[in-house]
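Renewal narrative, Specific Aim 1. Our central claim is that a sequence can be written position by position from structural information alone. The example that follows is taken directly from our test logs and has not been curated for this report. It begins with the structure tokens describing the chain, in the order in which they were read.
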């Protein structure tokens, strides 16, 4: 086992322990000499196979999801014209009917079990296009989207387009589940792909602009009618987007002159703060646009677009970017204003979505881009590598950007 790891972790040692466990100790050249960790046998064998795959992927220039898929895909950009055939073939290969592989999130558990059974390596060689097609068909109705092909890259690739979403990538989901060493979980990764790519409501077209007006209810109904102008309405005619003519307090929240959003029941959904304000244990500065998770009464935040650089949970965050929250109110995603070490990982800063840090519900780092060369699991990765971790902090994926 140590010999198998020599290319990525010279001088490393592996010790077999009682109870089907292995102790992995870093070599001196790694910068972590003498340190290590204990792995269950199944996890460690997966880790060995993953290290070998990473080495091969780098050697053949297939780092990253779209390059990896393009290397193995027989159909390439012709995939979207063969969706029905690919799905039918997948059902046949898995000996499952359309009642089981029914494009539901639950059906992805069946796919995960099958990929675990045959192994990620075999799935890569035999079913890559099939899995991309099926995952895409699971996601497509959930974003009310359609298939398209991106031709702005060396290797054109299929993706999903939806009016309320940034480009949704079934390839990302499949690549992550067949290339990592964690057990396959297509359902969770597919749901996360949709959640990450949903656009804020401010960028969604008004689908109810022509409906007949209805009187406001709830909190909005208590505000003076001349304090705002309705710009968008729900399908039942209730105000949805309004523009405040002056700074105003809405149920005690200081709102800036400008756009705000309300539910059909008249509850505040989102607005821009006119001054610093506290939500739970966090303070956000003036000009920050906040959006509630389930309304003001619930109190939880869904996301905040920061009005200026500020700290969130001790991390320096970039003004003008979104901070997203899990339902338990731990941070889900943010953009650093300066490079920072988090959980021992040197994380790069930046405004673009690629540089966003993602976190698990338990607060552990989930995805980051390395700010400098760093050793992970005994292997040295260069600056700019995008790395993924599971909820226990183990590396489950890495790809140079």
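The sequence written for that structure reads:
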């Amino acid at each position: 086992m140590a010999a198998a790891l020599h290319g990525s972790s010279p001088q490393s040692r592996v010790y077999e322990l009682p109870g089907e466990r292995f102790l992995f100790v870093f070599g001196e050249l790694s910068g972590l000499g003498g340190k290590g960790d204990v792995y269950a046998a199944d996890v460690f064998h997966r880790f060995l196979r993953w290290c070998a795959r990473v080495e091969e992927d780098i050697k053949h220039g297939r780092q990253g999801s779209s390059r990896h898929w393009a290397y193995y895909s027989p159909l390439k950009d012709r995939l979207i014209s063969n969706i029905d055939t690919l799905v039918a073939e997948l059902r046949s290969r898995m000996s499952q009917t359309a009642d089981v592989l029914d494009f539901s999130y639950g059906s992805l558990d069946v796919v995960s079990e099958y990929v675990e059974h045959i192994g990620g390596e075999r799935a890569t060689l035999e079913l890559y296009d099939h899995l991309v097609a099926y995952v895409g068909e699971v996601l497509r109705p959930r974003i009310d989207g359609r298939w398209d092909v991106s031709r702005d890259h060396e290797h054109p690739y299929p993706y999903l387009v939806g009016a309320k979403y940034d480009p949704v990538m079934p390839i990302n989901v499949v690549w992550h589940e067949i290339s990592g060493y964690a057990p396959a979980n297509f359902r969770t990764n597919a749901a996360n792909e949709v959640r990450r790519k949903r656009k804020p409501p401010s960028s969604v077209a008004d689908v109810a602009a022509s409906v007949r007006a209805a009187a406001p209810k709830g909190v909005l109904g208590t505000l003076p009618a001349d304090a705002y102008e309705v710009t968008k309405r729900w399908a039942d005619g209730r105000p949805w987007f309004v523009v405040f003519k002056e700074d105003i307090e809405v149920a005690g929240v200081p709102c800036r002159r400008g756009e705000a959003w309300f539910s059909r029941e008249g509850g505040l959904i989102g607005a821009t703060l006119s001054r610093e304000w506290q939500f739970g244990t966090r303070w956000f500065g003036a000009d920050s646009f906040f959006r509630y998770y389930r309304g003001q009464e619930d109190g939880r935040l869904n996301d905040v677009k920061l009005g200026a650089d500020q700290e969130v949970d001790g991390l320096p965050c970039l003004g003008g970017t979104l901070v997203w929250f899990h339902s338990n109110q731990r941070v889900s995603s943010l953009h650093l204003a300066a490079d920072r070490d988090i959980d021992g990982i040197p994380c790069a800063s930046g405004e673009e979505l690629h540089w966003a840090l993602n976190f698990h519900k338990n607060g552990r780092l989930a995805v980051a881009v390395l700010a400098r060369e760093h050793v992970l699991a005994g292997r040295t990765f260069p600056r700019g590598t995008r790395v993924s971790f599971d909820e226990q902090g183990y590396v489950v994926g890495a790809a140079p950007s």
